[in-house]
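Extended Data, record Putative transmembrane protein
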Amino acid sequence: MALLTQTLGRRMPAVRLSRLLRAACAGLWLSLSAPGVRAVPAADEAAVKAALLYNLTQFVDWPPSSFRTPYDPVIIGILGPDPFDDYLDQLVRPVGAGSRRVVVMRFRDARAARQAHVLFIHASQREHLQAIFATLEGRAVLTVADFDGFLRRGGIVRFYRNAENKIRVRINLEAARAAGLTISAKLLRVVEIVPPEEE
C-alpha cells in the first residue's frame, strides 16, 4: 500500500507509518481493547483517527434504503476542513466494506453531505451542529467528531484522548438507533457507550 510519509508538518518513516495504519486496520476492537496500547503521539493522530474512521464502516449496518443498488459504495464524508491529510484516501482505495467499495468525499455544506453514510464533522462546524443535524434528519448517517459535547448535542461517535493520552471511542447508542443504524456487538464491547447527557 502506497502511503504518504509526511504527517502534521514532519517526516515519518514510511515503514513506521505503514505499520501504524496496518495495526489500526487489522481490527478496531483489538487496537482499542489491548491493555498495553501505547499513547498516540500527536504526530500520529491524523493517521490513527483515519484508520478508526475507516474501521467504523466494517461494524455498522445501514438500512437497505440507504443504497440504490447492492453495489453502491459506502461514502465516508468530511464536512469542513479535512484533518486526515491523505491517510483516509490511502486506506480506502484497496478495500471495501463487505461487498461494497468505500469512497471518501469532502463536503462544504450539510445539504450535500446528506449522501454520506459516515460523516466526520470538523470542529470548525461546532456552532452549526443544530442546523447540520436538522439537514441530516431522515437519513441514516453515522456522524463522527472529535470535540467535546458532540454526543450530548446528538452526534453518534466521538474520538477522544483518555487520561493515558490514548485515542478512544465513545458512542451515543440512542442517536445511532434513532438514525436507523445497527452497530455490531463486537464494536460495542470495546467502546464506551455514553448516555448523551453524561458526555
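Summary. The helical segments are 14-26, 28-33, 45-56, 87-92, 110-113, 129-136, 173-178, 185-188.
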